[in-house]
Amino acid sequence: MTDTQHRTPAVTDYQEVRDLTEALAEPLSAEDQTVQSMPDVSPTKWHRAHATWFFETFLLVPHLKGYQPFDPAFGYLFNSYYEALGKRHPRPDRGLITRPGVAEIGAYRAHVDTAVTHLLEATNLAPELGELILLGLHHEQQHQELLLMDIKHVLSRNPLQPGYRPLAIAAPKSPRSVHWIDHPGGLVEVGHQNDGFAFDNEGPRHRVWLYPFALADRPVTNGEWQAFMDDGGYRRPELWLSDGWAALQASGATAPLYWRCLDGSWTEFTLGGSEPLDPSRPVVHVSYYEADAFARWSAARLPTESEWEAVAAGYPVEGRGLNLDRLRPETGPAGDFGFFGDVWEWTTSAYLPYPGFRPAAGAVGEYNGKFMVGQHVLRGGSCATPAGHVRPTYRNFFPPGAQWAFSGLRLARALGGAR
Amino acid sequence: MTDTQHRTPAVTDYQEVRDLTEALAEPLSAEDQTVQSMPDVSPTKWHRAHATWFFETFLLVPHLKGYQPFDPAFGYLFNSYYEALGKRHPRPDRGLITRPGVAEIGAYRAHVDTAVTHLLEATNLAPELGELILLGLHHEQQHQELLLMDIKHVLSRNPLQPGYRPLAIAAPKSPRSVHWIDHPGGLVEVGHQNDGFAFDNEGPRHRVWLYPFALADRPVTNGEWQAFMDDGGYRRPELWLSDGWAALQASGATAPLYWRCLDGSWTEFTLGGSEPLDPSRPVVHVSYYEADAFARWSAARLPTESEWEAVAAGYPVEGRGLNLDRLRPETGPAGDFGFFGDVWEWTTSAYLPYPGFRPAAGAVGEYNGKFMVGQHVLRGGSCATPAGHVRPTYRNFFPPGAQWAFSGLRLARALGGAR
Amino acid sequence: MTDTQHRTPAVTDYQEVRDLTEALAEPLSAEDQTVQSMPDVSPTKWHRAHATWFFETFLLVPHLKGYQPFDPAFGYLFNSYYEALGKRHPRPDRGLITRPGVAEIGAYRAHVDTAVTHLLEATNLAPELGELILLGLHHEQQHQELLLMDIKHVLSRNPLQPGYRPLAIAAPKSPRSVHWIDHPGGLVEVGHQNDGFAFDNEGPRHRVWLYPFALADRPVTNGEWQAFMDDGGYRRPELWLSDGWAALQASGATAPLYWRCLDGSWTEFTLGGSEPLDPSRPVVHVSYYEADAFARWSAARLPTESEWEAVAAGYPVEGRGLNLDRLRPETGPAGDFGFFGDVWEWTTSAYLPYPGFRPAAGAVGEYNGKFMVGQHVLRGGSCATPAGHVRPTYRNFFPPGAQWAFSGLRLARALGGAR
Amino acid sequence: MTDTQHRTPAVTDYQEVRDLTEALAEPLSAEDQTVQSMPDVSPTKWHRAHATWFFETFLLVPHLKGYQPFDPAFGYLFNSYYEALGKRHPRPDRGLITRPGVAEIGAYRAHVDTAVTHLLEATNLAPELGELILLGLHHEQQHQELLLMDIKHVLSRNPLQPGYRPLAIAAPKSPRSVHWIDHPGGLVEVGHQNDGFAFDNEGPRHRVWLYPFALADRPVTNGEWQAFMDDGGYRRPELWLSDGWAALQASGATAPLYWRCLDGSWTEFTLGGSEPLDPSRPVVHVSYYEADAFARWSAARLPTESEWEAVAAGYPVEGRGLNLDRLRPETGPAGDFGFFGDVWEWTTSAYLPYPGFRPAAGAVGEYNGKFMVGQHVLRGGSCATPAGHVRPTYRNFFPPGAQWAFSGLRLARALGGAR
Fold first, then answer.
1. Among B235, C317, D132, D408, which is disulfide-ready with D343 (CB 3.0 to 4.6 Å)?
2. Of the partner residues A76, A99, A155, the one whose CB lies closest to the CB of residue B31
3. What distance in Å separates the CA atoms of residue C7 and residue C24, rounded to the nearest whole number?
4. Most A CBs within 10 Å, among D290, D373, D376, D398, to test the A interface
5. Partner residue opposite C158 with nearest CB, options D98, D155, D160
6. What pLDDT sits at residue B318?
7. Which residues on adjacent β-strands are paired with residue A213?
């Protein structure tokens, strides 16, 4: 979505992304794929259809001569939020759509795949169409993570606490103690370099002045979070932002979203079902309010997104990312964690346009820009983020009260005297 | 549920009722059977499970030696409102339960059917157990009608307006004009005679003083309702009860629940999908507020439940009731209607205990009595009421704003000078 | 408002009622008179203005030649619910009207009093105007009770718990134990005889069939209510109507509206401020749900309104009614209570039209009839009901969850075998 | 609240600020001063008491030997949001407190004034106490503006649309056309210099990198806003942030908060009552969502707070500020406006801590820091901001949907090629 020239995806690249979506839906029954457990959540089958609608709407209808839409009504049902494309089904009502069913949505996907593959196999595909397909694949990867976040929430609301699929057993490990990575501050450059795919919100690359700071070399763990709770973390208003404290009083929460205390022991609902809490794993499903309170309790703070990027850009983007047998953040083999692929890390930065930001032209311009208010940026990617979908400049964003993303935190602190 | 001795149902009676539930679910996909479109609505598969839970809980667990519950968790999931049986899944969250799925619920039904059949085939079944089974069957019949009401609402919320199943085409007919059936008033007896099955709320039979009145010989039709609308019926506060007018302002409704005006023509969403409005059919899915306003506009009133019963008891309970090919109220072959089996008819009577009413003992006593506040009585049965499930003394009840039942109205008026 | 000829009130009658309103407002500051503590409550100054508007609108404007309305804008501000008179200020926003202030409303009252007195002093006042003035005075008396109910609620929401005015000290007494008054049942007549003023909803007088029953000779006391609470009354769902139990879970209430437990002792907020709970006084400010649960716990029931009237009509309407030094229900001098003037007593009867009921013609017809849904009838009058404003046929009404009226209860039970 | 040494206020300074509060309340009746029109609004008398409580709580109780609090209950009633000081009356219920009345609050103010004056007249007042008094005066000045914002909202909800006080007539003028003030960008310093009083959130002073930009030399006017409306500004989703569009759909707004269209002409509710809309005045009472949409429609953007400060710091802080005869933003004598004292100007900057921010110690530390989420910064001061209360570094803040502050906007745009 930026100005650079991108490589047109190969047919196999296309198929690989599309296949992963189907693999993610595979453990889910027709019933599982239909239900919406809160307005923010979308049904699995809606994700499968919407990612397909994206290709049909932005690529096939305008650019593939003679293309016949699978069903004209789907434009209304599966448009997410593109006002420029007309009226659409209200978001909180996505769970009311029992028909089309999962089988018909499978047929929809196949119909569109045939047409896109046909385009990709053409010898002289215009570069801007290649770019649209690439955007569509990154869009679908975002929905792969959303699909996992959303079905986790759906299943969590079932008193039987069913798992999404069996996960590999992970023995608790001792996490390395935190080391602090120092940064001298000064004038740094952040934002995307135009050297590969990026969303429009990652640019333009620009200068930011930083003051000396240090960043923890790993996220906060469940064990550290328990210490916060034991020290009255959820009962002490002086640790909380005013809005956060109000949200806490309204919800009555005393722990992260998926934690439960049964007979004195804490368990965590994971995509593998309920598990005993592992103190060595990164804490996940905390809101910005919770993360900020924890940081204040720790006599530290959250980093800004520029600080995060200035440090993380020097580390390899290998991460653990999405792995169907894992699907939870975990301590790495050497008791360590990287910067990418365990939990999304809240930053103190509000989600705002970079200097000189311009949304893409046309309906696709609604992709990011119109959400730039009332949210905070998260960085780094999670255990539900598909491989190849994360980079140091990637800006994820959620409202400060959101907990259902795979969101955790990493501490920062000022270096030097005054700050 | 009353004191009389009832015939123990035959195995074939049992199977017939149970089979009808499955036949009603048959046109519905797993997706259709899972969704809850408002707190008052329950998913199809929940109805299938709950009616089964009723037999398991009240009959098999206490009375069949060695019976193993199909799944101990189902007691929590499928209890509707029996406080005496402990905590249960919240009603507004029934649509969040994707698992057990429809297949597992089918297995649950089979498991319970085997056990009940076993009991029924025993030579010396205690009469009180026969009575419990009879109650269970009438309970399941109630849920058959609820299943149809509820799935109609679910499908109506889908912008594609899919039908539940194809219905037989019914050509519009000219309804007979209304004739008034006079009643001289005086001391009458109403309530159940103890001459067959009845719910506890239908008794005891008791005396009521009536003043002379007349009752229309058929329900109000769609055509008559259109005349009400054309005369400003939904815009004239003087026609409405205060609560009804407030509800109307809040909803902005200008027609019955399932009516839509497309390009100047009215359509009605039926279980067969959207159909052109047939002026000859009984109007259906109106609230008590709407029915009361219509009656005031007609310079008439709704009957009391005693008035209704005093007249209807003299007519045959043949009705049209539930017929899978029809599933909508219709004018009869001779342009007429009976008292039973087209639409439930609102009465001005609040749903209150009859003099001397006593709920059944035990948890079953929560069946009816605890709902005796804030509701109005409807009489007569509808096109979704199973055959054999209606009698002149039957008291259905809904809150005055409810529209999703198959509810219509029949007019009454006072006879004589003063009243 | 019924057909009978009524005596035109004397100027002194008029002035007496109007003066009482001002006497009720006298202990209240401008601030007190302005605030609305919930949508059901109206500010004191609104009551003062509305009762005045009633005379201006229904009497002076149509019938006094040359009358100039005090302020044309008041028609919008002080119309309560008469749709026939056009748009009006929304009820929940009555507390937003800081201007006109209390002084201007005093001037409004004087302006209207001058004009009404002028009419009353005319030698040949048409009887129908005399009847309108009589209606206006009874209307104002209703608002005198509402004023006290409402200001009690306003003051109760102040953490300082200020009293409305100092009340005479009442030493606790021992209430007489309950005696049961038997009634043989049969065909009785209830409703107003047309032998004096009555609201339209009290007629027509009509026959009702009663079964033998007994009625307690006094209301339930605070002490008896404490026994109910001590026996788990607020924790046992089997005692409650389903809607009542839901309301209880939502509110978390464990006692009547104005009770508070401080350091283990119960206090009651009265118009004299907070007082230690007196077990001998009638319990007051309970909802229909609470009254019904108490009756079930007592193995009794509430009476119907016909039962209540059939008995109470034989007792003197002397009662204790509104007395500025008392303003709370109390045990009488001989440890007894009457049927009138301590607490309004909930009945099981829904508030519905009597057979042959016809509202008065014109806008005044909105007075009662349009509220005949979703409410229950209370009988008897309270310590806040002005003298001369109660009779055996008087029907007060509130929704089943309402608590801010001076509402209590009296038990009934069936006599004889079957019922 | 910052580290610098501040001058202790003179007794006359103290009295001048305190007197202005009373002067602001003077046109208001006891009724006006009591009502709360929405949860964000506080009653006038609450502001008068709360500003007094601030001195009593933070200064007199801990530091004046022998000081007797006026009323111990006031600590509960008039604490705004200081969690460290214990429980307090809920904010949405401030309008329920009819007692203490305005007279008693006047006595409270006098009681505290005597004690503070006594302290100020002492020869050896500790500098930290002088600083506390200074903070208390700036705090009271903030509440002076809030008092005006709040009473404007209260009076606006009265259908009679009464004015707060008569304002001087202001003839419409022709505003100068916009000139753009260029800024070359680069590394600039923003934040408070520690050279006089400032709130803690204004520091520390720090470096920020800016790109070249231009800032309009005056705010947007009513006339320009009308052009936006005429061009469909409130009907075109492509102009709005997603949250802003959703808020617009929910409210149905088609114009700024206090605008009304009567018979085709626009009026504006001001503190002087309803006035014809003057196209030359700065637009006021628009939300961040509205301001952002207007800027997008103008092919411009809002400035960041650093951009705003980098330019405005070079202009005189004379402004028009609070003037009891004006109380509305107006075009200056030469058809111009300054940067200070007409309308608060929305910036794109989220309200977040500056690098190195540390809240003051103790309960006073809750003053600013805990609100640093979910809000946007506004700069410049308004027609309701008291003289001497504004400086270039002042950071006001409100949620993006708020409209009841005197909030307007000034446009910015990037200079140079890339941005």
1. D408
2. A99
3. 26
4. D373
5. D98
6. 75
7. A183, A414
Backbone angles phi, psi at B265, to 5 degrees: -115, 140
Q: Nearest residue of B to residue A156 by CA position? A: B96
Strand partners, D180: D216
Chains in contact with D, where contact requires at least 3 CB pairs less than 8 Å apart: A, C
Distance from CA of C176 to the nearest CA of B (A): 29
Q: Residue B234's closest CA among B254, B216, B205?
A: B254
Instruction: Find residue A408's DSSP bridge partners.
Output: A345
A396 three-class SS = strand
Alpha helices in D357-419 (DSSP H): none
Q: Do B237 and C81 touch (CB under 8 A)?
A: no
Q: Give tens-digit pLDDT for B383-411.
A: 999 989 999 999 999 999 999 999 999 99
Residue D331's pLDDT is 75
The DSSP bridge pattern shows strands A407-408 and A344-350 to be parallel
Q: Do chains C and D touch (3 or more CB pairs under 8 A)?
A: yes
CA A2 – CA B398 distance, rounded (Å): 59
pLDDT range class, residue A172, cuts 50, 70, 90 = confident
Out of C29, C35, C77, the one facing D96 most closely (by C-beta) is C35
Contact C241 B400 (CB under 8 A): no
Question: Which of these ranges, A305-319, B46-60, C70-84, C321-335, has the smallest mean pLDDT?
Answer: C321-335
Q: Using alpha carbons only, how large is chain B's radius of gyration in Å?
A: 22
ipTM of the complex: 0.95
CA distance D139 to D142: 5
C243 and B292 within 8 Å at the Cβ level: the answer is no
Location of structure tokens 């409210």: D251
- CA distance linking residue A355 with residue D413, whole number of Å: 11
| CB spacing of A159 vs B35 below 8 angstroms | no
Measured from the Cβ of residue C12, the count of other Cβ atoms closer than 10 Å reads 8
Give the per-residue pLDDT at B98: 98
- The angle formed by the CA atoms of residues B178, B179 and B180, to the nearest 5 degrees, is 120
Considering only CB atoms, B101 lies closest to which of A31, A76, A96, namely A31
Q: Which of D314, D271, D305, D338 is nearest to D412 (CA)?
A: D305
Note whether A297 and A231 are within 8 A (CB).
Answer: yes
All residues of chain D having their beta carbon less than 8 Å from the beta carbon of residue A187 are: 187, 209
Rounded Cα distance between B401 and B290, Å, is 9
Instruction: Report the sign of the C-alpha dihedral through residues C21, C26, C32, C34, in that order.
Output: positive
Q: Are A295 and A411 in contact (CB under 8 A)?
A: yes
pLDDT, tens digit, for every residue of D239-286?
999 999 999 999 999 999 999 998 899 999 999 999 999 999 999 999
Which two three-digit tokens encode residue A251? Answer: 């919800």
Interface probe, candidates B242, B367, B376, B398, chain C, greatest C C-beta count within 10 A: B242
- Across the beta sheet with D273-276, the strand order is D259-262, D265-270, D273-276
Q: What integer pLDDT is reported at residue D6 of this predicted model?
A: 59
Considering only CB atoms, A35 lies closest to which of B98, B102, B158, namely B98
Would you state the pLDDT for residue D318? 76
Distance from CA of B374 to the nearest CA of C (A): 5
Helix (H) or strand (E) holding A46: helix A44-55
Contact assignment for D209 to A207 by CB distance below 8 Å: yes
Handedness of CA C123, C128, C132, C135 (dihedral sign): positive
User: If you count them, how many residues does chain B have?
Assistant: 419
